[in-house]
Amino acid sequence: MNRINEEPQIHDDPVENRDNDDEEDDDEDDQYEYGDGFLVDSSDDGEEEEEDEEQRHCNEKKSRNRRKKDEAFSLHEDDYLLLEDNNVDFQRNKYKRLKKSSEEEEEDKINEDDDDDLSHFIVDEDVPGDHGWRRKIKKFKQGTDSKALRYDNDIFGDPEELLKLRRKDLAYNEKIERKLEDEFEPIVLSEKYMTEKDDEIRKLDVPERMQIFEEVTGNAPVDDISIEEESNWIYARLVPEQGPGFSVSKDDIVRFLEMSHVQKLEIPFIAMYRKEQCQSLLDSSDDDGSDFNLLKKLETKWHKVLWMIQDLDREWLLLRKRKTALFGYFTKRFEEETCRSDLNKSLFESVMKSPKAAETEREVDDVDSKFNLHFPHCEIDEGQYKRPKRKSHYSICSKFGIREFANKFGYSAEQLGFALSLEKVFVDELEDAKKTPEEMALYYKCAMFEDLQVVLKGARHVAAVEISCEPLIKKYVRGIYMENAVVSTSPTPDGDVVIDSFHQFSAVKWLREKPLRKFEGTQWLLIQKAEEEKLLQVTFKLPENQINWIISECSEHYLSVGVSKYAQLWNEQRKLILEDAVHGFLLPSMEKEARSLLISRAKTRLLSEYGQVLWNKVSSGPYRRNNNNTSDEEAAPRVLACCWGPGNPETTFVMLDSSGELVDVLYAESIALRFRDVNDQKRKKKDQDRLRKFIRDHQPNVVALAAANLSCVRLKDEIYEVIFQMVEELPSVVEAGIYDLPVVYADESLPRIYENSRISREQLPQQAGIVKRAVALGRYLQNPLAMISTLCGLGKDILSWKLHSLQDFLDPDEKYEMVEQVMFVSGLGPRKAASLQRSLVRAGSIFVRKELINHGIGKKVFVNAAGFLRIRRSGLACSSSQLIDLLDDTRIHPESYGLAQELAKDVYTHDIVRDDEDDAIEMAIEYVRDEPASLKKIVLDEYLRSKNQENKKETYSLIMRELSCGFQDWRSLFKEVDPDEEFYMISGETKETIGEGRIVQATVKKVTSGKAKCVLDCGLPGILLKEDYSDDGRDIVDLSNKLCEGDIVTCKVKSILKQRYHVLLVCKESEMGKNRNLDYYYHEEERNSVRIEKEKAPKEKKQFKSRMIVHPLFQNINAEQATDYLSDKNIGESIVRPSSRGLNHLTLMIKIFDNLYANKEIIEGGKESKDIVSLQRIGKTLKIGNETFEDLDEVMDRYVDPLVTHLMTMLNYRKFRTGTKSEIDDLLRVEKGVNPKMVVYSFGVSHEHPGSFILSYIRSANPHHEYIGLYPKGFKFRKRMFGDLDKLAAYFKRHVDDQGHY
């Protein structure tokens, strides 16, 4: 045989090397000695077999290469699962990319690096019987003769070329192999918690919220000394903030911190399973002494004190982190500055000690400020970037040696601080200089400071700045300032116009000297917002006596007690320094701190109120047919949910089964209509019949009606009417539940959010918006907590829920942190909860609590969460024969299973008197669950003493309750809305906006002699009685002489008839002047004094606010100027001008007759009341009376032009007469004398009511007068509208003798 010097390249993906076989296997290989495809036989069959196998192997390689190219952009399988679970749209490749093992990659690299690696595989005819060699060659199945090699080259190409292509393919695959971060936008990955950081949080065995917490604060200390130090710090701040009557144990705080920092236990777990260790921090004990009552229903609690301690814990950890970082920075700077010859080491060492003594963030800031003042960081020229620095006057003075002069004024700022804080008392008196300040200043004159007074001023400035930056001095002043400073507010010129009685800022428009310590609620947030919008001017002031006290105390320690001339001169300079330090630096600095403190307090309070409202919502129980039954045995009710629709969309009914799934939908457009004709009545009757059939078919347990507006009141009556008709028509067929089928109001604010949420599109993709809203309404009634949780997912739609009137002042992150605090199970957060949920869905079912550890949560997270995760026989578990531990269906924590089993066994053996059964524990637990009354026999205190477990009373109490009734619903019982809640839900208002004593605006709709019917801005009807119109209301004969239809009046809410949805109004001046529930420091008298001063001032033309409106008919002029402008114009000409009533009004002035002008008020809508620029522009809607227009052009086309047409018709009418009312009466008397049997009449303009006309007529002897209104649609006479004047005259002639028409 011939040797083969060059062999073809080994094919890709070779088979791994097998282990050396034993010698006894060699005999089996003999049969392959000449037929294994490696040794060349003379027969042609061997060549054909070799060629077939080589071709098949090459085809497999090509197939693999194609698959690799197809999968070039494939992701890891775990990534695909993560994308599917988070509902991300993507296109998944058909094949799955297979990654090579490390050994295969290593082999590929060897093959690529050396083309001649296989040259040593040569055939030697002298060793044909070497089985080991033959077996190795058998593995690679290589051909050896040149003919086969040439044949392969013809088919597959040159091996060298194949090798190059392979290298390119590997490089290309490495290049295009991507991660999730390369395929999706970062914001998408962040929203869906799919970043690498989120993966780390999911994998780390620490509660999720603790991980987020520690990302900000750093790792919490676990040593006893740090915990003791922190507990002292928290205790010192917690007790004073809560006021008298609040008491907690410091030892409980220590134990809480140990559980949180060391054991990584979260607040819900501590409050449930560690009550004995922090009893004083809990709201109250569940049971007290021997009064333990097994039948007493527990209530869910928020445990505010624990959350407050956690907030203080965060504050302390951040403070500790800042102090550590600052100390490290100081140490580094000390090492850098050691080489300086002028370094003040004693000052440096003093500053370095200060961070440790700092107890608040403000004090740390003071230390940092002092350090940066005395040791400013120099710029580095060693290739570092330099930030341009603005040099302060202090640094300039220091640079030119003025600081050295400042040190000669006496005590240093640090010495003054020690004296004020009484930390050190200086016995040595201040030594007076032997030169005057001016003489001393001569030594420090330079090019920059050429004048002596400039030198003195610079030195005083340096001394004042150092005093203002001394931490001990700032701490002293801070204590006085925060206790005694006061705040005052007054409106700016723009604010005086914008902030009226209805504005959000009206309650803080005028505050006078309100102490800082009195700002307890969220009031400061309103003041800050108003100041940002330049509507309010806010001033901080420290009373003069307190300022004088600070200066006198400083003077006592800073000034010399000498009486010499030099001492007096130097003391004068020292006084100027103290004045400058206090007024120029300290007080402004304190004001900034006060503002920051007020914001922090207000936000903390607002966040607490927001969280409390949310907690009340989620702790509200579901609707139950039997409210006394709180077990889970009763299925959720079948709900018929209804949402009112105006027509597009229609009023909609949806039927939900007991699991909340949508069963059927009914649209009933006409069911709540007030029919005007027969067709309306037929449509309504048809909808009533359809609803009757709908109820009969589905048999709901309750009807939930969304309280949206006043139309829902009528809709509720219609639903009850349908139910009554069912009972009356077919009493024998109707089930018993229909007789008393309740119709309850429900708030639709949350369902509206669900309607527009992403989750609703996923759950109900084919349904209309109103159907989604109705489904959410019904589900909320079935289980409020579950419905709220639906909106707490990735989209965070829950943040749109309006829970507090001021919640817009909170950042979304602040609100969601509160949502997580209330909503998520202990140990879990959005990442771990979603991961656990996905794992459980894949598993299908779980039978033991301990199996949760196998689903992606570690031991620490399991300890926190286990007691709150219920394992019960439901879903796929129902079809399994595997038993479920009854204790897993309770709130008993797995760590207490032994105690629960022992207790159950003791009860069981006491009642059954058997203790020899193998499954006694299981039978005991089952017995106690079936016979909960057996637990009543146990006297808890005696039982605990017998077991030496007196310190486990709370744990045993929980065990007994859960053995009696596992996972009893602790939420509050469902309550139907009371009349007050119903009124505010229907009206869409709150107690703050429509409460008694609130100032409102109302539009007059109808006026009679005794009362005016009005409509408030919110749509509620209001009634203004004649005697409530003014203080002399009893003297008013006819209220219609004072008010006209369309007038807008400012009133106060006298009372609210909530059952009738009516508001009684009053606009007496005496009532309007009375203070409603205003702040104690609201200075009404000062506002009145300002108004009185303005009234006493010389009368000026009534001012108006210029408007940013561009239109040919608009001019920024007042009423007098507009009159002058129209005086020489034709009748019917008009102009639009600003209104003196404010920026939400315009005035349309029309020339009616010579020297007679009618003013029509235009009300603007769609404006942002908080934006002064928006107020100055024209509104998005314009309203005159009941007519609404989009712009001034439409006003001219649809209102002014038709009105002027009717005006000219009247002026040209044959019966129109010019002159005053008395002049026209005289003309009619003359005409009556000529035709005594006729009823003479004529029309004339009304000079008393411009824009109206007077119909004057004489029937017998005396003239009578009636008014005619001029409108775009025609003339209004006796409450009728006439488009033609002849028809009006004809109607008058036919009804001239009608009585009671005027």
From TrEMBL:
Compositionally biased intervals (Acidic residues): 19-33, 42-53, 103-117
InterPro entries in the cross-refs: HHH_9 (IPR041692), NA-bd_OB-fold (IPR012340), RNaseH-like_sf (IPR012337), RuvA_2-like (IPR010994), S1_domain (IPR003029), SH2_dom_sf (IPR036860), Spt6-like_S1 (IPR049540), Spt6_acidic_N_dom (IPR028083)
Basic and acidic residues bias (residue ranges): 1-18, 54-70
Subcellular localization(s) per the UniProt record: Nucleus
Residue stretches making up the S1 motif domain: 997-1068
Alphabetized PROSITE patterns for the sequence: S1
Entry's Gene Ontology BP terms: nucleosome organization; transcription elongation-coupled chromatin remodeling
GO molecular function: histone binding; nucleic acid binding; nucleosome binding
Function text: Transcription elongation factor that enhances transcription elongation by RNA polymerase II (RNAPII).
Family statement drawn from the similarity comment of this UniProt entry: Belongs to the SPT6 family.
PANTHER family, sorted: TRANSCRIPTION ELONGATION FACTOR SPT6
Record-given protein name: Transcription elongation factor spt6
